[in-house]
Specification:
Order of helices and strands: HHHHHEEEEEEEHHHHH
Number of helices: 10
Largest sheet: 4 strands, antiparallel
Radius of gyration: 21 Å
Helix content: 40-55%
Distance between the termini: 49 Å
Strand order of the largest sheet: 2-3-7-6
Bound molecules: flavin-adenine dinucleotide
Number of strands: 7
Shape: globular
Structural class: alpha+beta
Low-confidence stretches: none
Mean pLDDT: 97
Strand content: 5-15%
């Protein structure tokens, strides 16, 4: 019988990519506890990702990339997170944003081509730093306190961004900034220079290896053409499915650990392993409902987004529902896995307690639960108007 994680592989080509990522995930799993303990950034994982070609997964073929679909991105990110959630989430922002730029053309063509070539040739990466302590999550519409002031030939950007995943490794990133002279907000591509500093603030309960520190910009110059045009094609935010994929991968790892524990652990008062107990089987069944339901929604949403290119903005409720269900069900599944394993699940020697802490972060990645519920409610109310 095939493994649960393989259930959504559709072709030989997808299997081949999955096997490549599986090898990376196994290697990263061996390093995960150390980076989790130290809160250090796994530079060696990113060197491996570069060497394997994974960093160019979503780059268009014309620039030498893999031009992966959203479905493939979800599948591979899930598998990578099975080995190490932090690395998967961090690289997911990069891969997702390249896909987003590919479909929305929000990055002007010249900058996009330059980015793609840097990814393919040098293993460059990208992310957007939009969160700030005063404005909170950008997905809620807060105004950035980071400012962009016009200067000769470009802009001077000043401010402080929080939750800046991948900050230890990026040589370029996008920031959102407020433009006082226009009383508006725009995104700017920044190439790291001496005016950019990283303050190592990231010391959290979970996702400790994502390097999501604060980034301070002190009058950083960026040329005029590095201001991104506000309007692009609305892609419904499908690329954000890299987030639920990550948390599903972590939960699948917890599930496999618990099931294999149940099959091998036999306390000396029992005739067989605890997997034979109806109570434990019930728990395994519950874990399966959480995972299988969430994955059904996740892969269906990704597949629809790939195929229904004209109606992507209309898929927002489906995409949000997939994220909401996956992140919440991942938390439930890891909790059940730990109950199956019992007190040993608390041990730092086992990966379960790390999974438990890592999945928690999914609640605070966009779209947040209340935003999803609001979107679904608005959809229902509009329908009946
Ligand atoms: C592991 C990880 C990696 C991340 N990486 C990045 C990254 O690379 N780039 C980036 O820009 N961001 C990143 N983020 C940040 C993320 O997108 C959020 O900005 C951040 O988690 C703060 O979100 P929040 O909902 O707690 O913030 P806030 O918006 O400050 O909300 C705090 C609380 O206030 C309440 N609240 C605030 N506003 C509203 C409202 N309008 N309606 C209802 N309730 C409200 C809610 O109870 C909410 O929980 C990352 C986060 C995590 C956890």
């Amino acid at each position: 019988m095939g493994r649960l994680i393989d259930q959504y592989i559709r072709s030989a080509a997808e299997r081949e990519r999955a096997e490549m990522v599986e090898a990376l995930a196994s290697r990263f799993a061996e390093r995960a506890a150390l980076h989790d303990r130290d809160g250090s950034f796994p530079h060696e994982n990113f060197a491996d990702l570069h060497k394997s070609g994974y960093l160019k997964l979503t780059v268009p073929r014309i620039f030498g990339g893999g031009e992966a679909t959203l479905y493939e991105l979800v599948s591979l990110q899930e598998r990578l997170a099975y080995g190490d959630g932090s690395t998967a989430l961090a690289v997911g922002w990069h891969l997702g944003q390249v896909l987003h730029f590919r479909t929305t053309r929000k990055l002007p063509d010249k900058l996009f081509e330059e980015l793609c070539r840097a990814i393919v040739d040098d293993g460059a990466m990208i992310n957007t730093f939009a969160s700030e302590s005063a404005s909170g999550s950008p997905s809620r519409g807060g105004k950035p306190e980071t400012t962009a002031i016009r200067t000769e030939g470009g802009w001077l950007i000043t401010g402080r961004k929080t939750f800046s995943t991948l900050s230890p490794i990026l040589d370029r990133f996008v920031v959102s900034a407020y433009i006082p002279e226009e009383d508006g907000t725009a995104d700017f591509l920044i190439y790291k220079n001496g005016q950019v500093s990283i303050i190592e603030t990231w010391d959290t309960i979970g996702m400790r290896g994502t390097g999501s520190h604060d980034v301070v910009l002190d009058s950083v110059f960026t040329p005029g053409d590095c201001r991104l045009p506000g309007l692009g094609i609305d892609d419904g935010g499908g690329w954000l499915l890299h987030i639920p994929a990550c948390y599903m991968g972590i939960a699948l790892a917890a599930r496999d650990f618990a099931v294999s524990f149940a099959q091998t652990y036999r306390p000396n008062h029992l005739q067989g392993p605890i997997a034979e107990l109806p109570l434990v089987q019930q728990s395994i069944g519950q874990m399966e409902t959480e995972l299988r339901t969430a994955r059904c929604l996740l892969y269906a949403a990704a597949d629809r987004w790939d195929r229904e290119t004209e109606s992507r903005p209309l898929l927002k409720p489906e995409l949000g529902l997939a994220k909401y269900t996956a992140t919440n069900n991942a938390i439930k599944a890891v909790d059940i896995a730990m109950r199956i394993v019992g007190g040993a699940s608390l041990s730092k020697k086992l990966p379960l307690e790390r999974y438990y802490r890592d999945v928690r972060a999914g609640l605070h990645n966009p779209p947040m639960d209340n935003t999803v519920l609001h979107t679904l409610a608005a959809d229902a109310l509009n329908e009946m108007r």
